[in-house]
Amino acid sequence: MEKLLVPTICKVDKVIQETPDIRTYRLKFREEGLMEQFTFLPGQFVEFSLLGSGECTFCIASSATRKGYFDCSIKKAGVVTADIHNCIEEGDEVGIRGPFGNWFPLEDIKGKNLLFVGGGIGLAPLRSLIQYCIDNRGDYKDFTILYGARTSADLCYKEEIKEWQDDKSLNIVLTIDRPEETWHDNVALFPKFWKR
User: Which of 32, 40, 129, 130 yields a CA-CA distance of 20 to 30 A from 113?
Assistant: First the structure.
């Protein structure tokens, strides 16, 4: 129990700018061998701490089936998250405690049709489950992801969404709330709607 109270140091291996106010931080434990021992299930979270700023709870936004790292996607929304966005770059170190919390009922969904519905940063907790299910695709029937945001610029995980769209065993439905005149940066995500 004592170990859960003390943060373990992680190195920020990669920072991905998902949207203007959301970044994904790819993390690896500094101490050799800890990454291999770190086990978690889709739906669990960690306590993410930045020395001098504080600690916040963030879901683990990747699956343990993707080895050697874990992701936390963080929306700039308050004092600590602003400090994380403004201060943390690749190579920096942060404290992590966890994993904590419940997880999705993986055994109960085997052999079933799957429908994932998320919006904006709300895809982060589902992404862990989506990756897990994709990596175990044979265990599930129909597989649909319905994901939306205010604008195309507010969609997270754009590169990964392109991979999902290329996978013919997945049904991907993307929506946006506000019409846009041009979608230059996101044409690949919405090919059937793009007109010159």
Answer: 40
Kindly give, in sequence order, each residue whose CB lies less than 8 Å from that of residue 13, ignoring residues fewer than 6 positions away: 26, 27, 28, 69, 90
Are 92 and 49 spatial neighbours (Cβ–Cβ below 8 Å)?
no
- Enter the pTM of the model: 0.90
Distance CA 143, CA 114 (A): 5
Residues of the chain with CATH 2.40.30.10: 2-100
Task: Tell me if residue 82 falls in helix, strand or coil.
Answer: helix
pLDDT in tens, the chain (196 residues): 455 678 999 999 999 999 999 999 999 999 999 999 999 999 999 999 998 899 999 999 999 999 999 999 999 999 999 999 999 999 999 999 999 999 999 999 999 999 999 999 999 999 999 999 999 999 999 999 999 999 999 999 999 999 999 999 999 999 999 876 555 556 566 655 443 2
CATH code, residues 2-100 = 2.40.30.10
Whether residue 125 has a cis bond before it, omega within 30° of 0: no
Q: Class of 106-193 per CATH?
A: alpha beta
| Residue 65 near residue 136 (C-beta atoms within 8 A) | yes
Q: Which segments of the chain does DSSP mark as H helices, in order?
A: 2-5, 34-37, 79-87, 106-109, 123-135, 158-166
